[in-house]
Design a protein that fits this description.
single chain, 255 residues, Glutaredoxin, three-stranded mixed β-sheet
C-alpha cells in the first residue's frame, strides 16, 4: 500500500502543482482501513491479500528519527529522496519519527513560547504546520509532509496536501492548532526533544537510528538509507531487502 501512496504523491506533486483527490473520495492512506472503503476504491482484493500476508515485525523495527527544518534544502532532499521512499518500501520493518525544529531558537515571554528559525518566519510557520499535521492526521501525516516538501513552495502546498491525504482533518482545524496553544506546545516539545539529543546536534538533517547518532550513521543514512535499514533489521528480511541493493549516493547537503 505504501508503494501506491508514493506513486500517487509523486503524481500529485509536479512542478509545485497539487491535483485532485482519488475518485473514490478517500485518501490513499485509508484505502485498506475497512473492507467497505477498499471495495469503494476498487482495491478490495489487494487489501485482503496484504492484510493476510503482512507479518508483524513491530518488536524489531528499526527506529529512524529525523530532526529537521521545513525549508532547509538538505532536509527536504533527504526527506523526499531517502526517508520517504525507504519508508514506502520498508515501512513494515521501520518506524519514522519526524521532529520539525532543527536549528531554531526558543524564548518564553511569560505567556507563550516564541521561536526564531534559521530560514526566517516562513520556516517557523512550515515547522508549526508540520508539527500540527503530525499531531492531528495519524497515518496520513508522512504522505502530507512528503507532499509539502516535494512541492516548489512548501507553504502553498500545505493546504491542498492536507485536503488530499487527510480529508477528515479540515485545513481550518490545522490552522487553529498552528495559531493556538496546542501548536505552541507542540513546537516547544520539539525544541525540548531537539535540545535533549546526545550528542547534541550540530546541523540538520540530523538522523538518529534506534535512538543513536554517530558520524557513520549520518553518512550511511544520508547516502543509502534503504541499505542501512535492511542491514540493521534483525528479523526475517522482507522481499525488498533480499533483492539488489540500492547503491545511489544522494550526497545530502546540510544546514
Amino acid at each position: 500500500m505504501r508503494v501506491a501512496v508514493f506513486i500517487f504523491v509523486i503524481l500529485c506533486v509536479h512542478a509545485g502543482n497539487v491535483y485532485s483527490k482519488p475518485s473514490c473520495g478517500y485518501p490513499l492512506t485509508e484505502w485498506c482501513r475497512t473492507q467497505e472503503i477498499a471495495r469503494e476504491c476498487g482495491v478490495e482484493k489487494y487489501c485482503l491479500e496484504r492484510n493476510a500476508t503482512r507479518p508483524n515485525r513491530a518488536e524489531s523495527s528499526v527506529e529512524v528519527g529525523l530532526y529537521y527544518e521545513s525549508l532547509c534544502p538538505g532536509c527536504r532532499q533527504f526527506l523526499t529522496q531517502q526517508l520517504f521512499p525507504t519508508w514506502v518500501m520498508l515501512g513494515d520493518i521501520m518506524n519514522v519519527q519526524l521532529v520539525p525544529y532543527g536549528n531554531a531558537q526558543e524564548s518564553f515571554d511569560g505567556k507563550k513560547y516564541k521561536f526564531t528559525c534559521q530560514h526566517g518566519e516562513e520556516e517557523c510557520l512550515g515547522n508549526m504546520i508540520e508539527a500540527c499535521v503530525l499531531n492531528m492526521t495519524g497515518s496520513a501525516a508522512f504522505p502530507i509532509i512528503f507532499c509539502m516538501e516535494s512541492a516548489a513552495d512548501v507553504l502553498k502546498a500545505a493546504q491542498p496536501c492536507v485536503e488530499i491525504y487527510a480529508s477528515s482533518a479540515s485545513w481550518g482545524s490545522i490552522m487553529d492548532c498552528v495559531k493556538g496553544d496546542v501548536g505552541n506546545k507542540l513546537m516547544h516539545d520539539n525544541a525540548v526533544r531537539t535540545k535533549a539529543l546526545n550528542p547534541p546536534h550540530k546541523y540538520v538533517p540530523w538522523v538518529t537510528v534506534n535512538g543513536g547518532h554517530t558520524d557513520e550513521i549520518e553518512q550511511k543514512a544520508t547516502s543509502a538509507l534503504f541499505n542501512l535499514v535492511c542491514s540493521l533489521y534483525k528479523g526475517p528480511k522482507p522481499a525488498a531487502c533480499t533483492g539488489a541493493k540500492q547503491s545511489v549516493d544522494h550526497r545530502t547537503s546540510f544546514c
